[in-house]
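U., I forgot to send this yesterday:
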Amino acid sequence: MKNSLIKILLIACLVCPACNKMLDEDIRSQVVGDYLNTPTGWQSGVNGVYATLKSVFCAIEDNGIIPQITVFGTDTYTNGFDGGFKMMNFYNSDLNPRTNVIYSNWRNLYVAINACNTVIDKADLVPGLSDDVKNTRLGEVRFIRAEYYYLLVELWGPVPLSLKETTTIETEATRAPVKDIFAAIIEDLNFAIQHLPAVAANYGRVTKPAAEQLLANVYLAKATSEAKEADDYSKAADLAIDVINNYGFKLLDDFGKVFEQGSGEKNPEVIWAIQNNKDIISNGPGNTMHLYFLMKYDDLPGMQRDIANGRPYARFKPTDFVLNDLFDRQLDSRYRESFKRVFYCNKPGTYTINGHSVNLKAGDTAVYLADREYTPEELSHIDYNVWPPSKQNERVFPTLTKFLDPQRVGVNDQPGSRDLLFFRLSETYLTAAEALLMSGRPDEAADYINVVRRRAANPGATPEETEANRTAMEVSPAQLDIDFILDERARELLGEGVRWIDLVRTGKLIERVKKYNPVSAANIQPFHVLRPIPQIQIDRTSGTFEQNPGY
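Result:
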């Protein structure tokens, strides 16, 4: 079955990574003809497939699964003041088959899949390519293709399944059954697991444990789909446990250290990451996630936009559920480690604050987002802007720190240099816990979830107090249900682009959005568990191409 969208063969040609210890990207123009039939050209085509990851996941504006599709409109994030894409949170009539963000992500995925198909189809035509090199690179590309189809089937349900290169305009298309799509994904990932190394020679290339983690996620999703089979959860558990036990990954002692920019991003907890760098030419769209979670600090007294604090799109605002109920702030370090609540003056001057004149100097506290209310008497003695919960709004809210990028070159730069930490070991523990719980093994599930929770405990003043906090963070098997698993995934993976899919996979999207996101609750309907098929796909298809129900 073929995708009917016009295929633009965008194989980005990259420098051969053999001359560098990391996956080195040097994006060039379109490559066609016989170049891909040479060893150098074919390996450049493989690297070009990696380049598609940036446009698919975290590129600017209406391109990017994470910035537009999988964060807000959930129980953890609602919309900030940025007005461009609020329909994804409102679930109103603007979310429809003609919504540009829907079409652009559909298009990006199929263009990227065609790049994968091209490289896969040409592999056997390349002379002088050893079987080991060929199969390793094919494993990488088939992993990426599997990830793209996993996104498609989770977001849209039955979709066109194209596993061969498309070189011409085609107008025939059918929606493949969900069962067939999962079968293709699993076949790709089994090939990848068979041929990929445990550790990549060039950091950033896909590895066997990354493929096992993705396949575990796929089995979790398949277990609640129309393609489900009795052993899906047990397979997911076995794969996740294998990643935990057999590859030398380990959780860092401090949750906050996982997201330290620079060398800290390459730590023993990271299973696989999408690479970015500071080279303007080779970084392409880069990682733009730093834009979206940042409150509008730059129009507050004592503040102006700078590189250190970031460029605030203020697109995603945490729900009150996240800010007030999700975290045990006495025990759990992840609230403190996840949010920035203080901004220091970078625009000295005299301002009227809390009803009296204040002379703010550089470095003074200028803005504080409090977690309690203040009386007028208390405020009269405070020389900085206090925003208690009752005053926080679409512009002013705690800022997620995971993606902040103070190492950008310019104050308005959009491409960031941070790696996108795609799979972390903590997620693997949570995957194992969910799969074990749903397999009827809650005792084992509690063991895995407690590893993550113990790491998250606030440190105490003494080793004994620290251990007491860790013990207090543990949960019993009787406390576990799917809602607790979802809460724990929210605490650990907040903002990391998996939430919408988590809620759909577990059948909890409608229930939890109605409970925790009042803005979304007003309009969300059962049919919103799937995104609309882009109208342009339907219009360009000869014959009938069915729309998802409700749109």
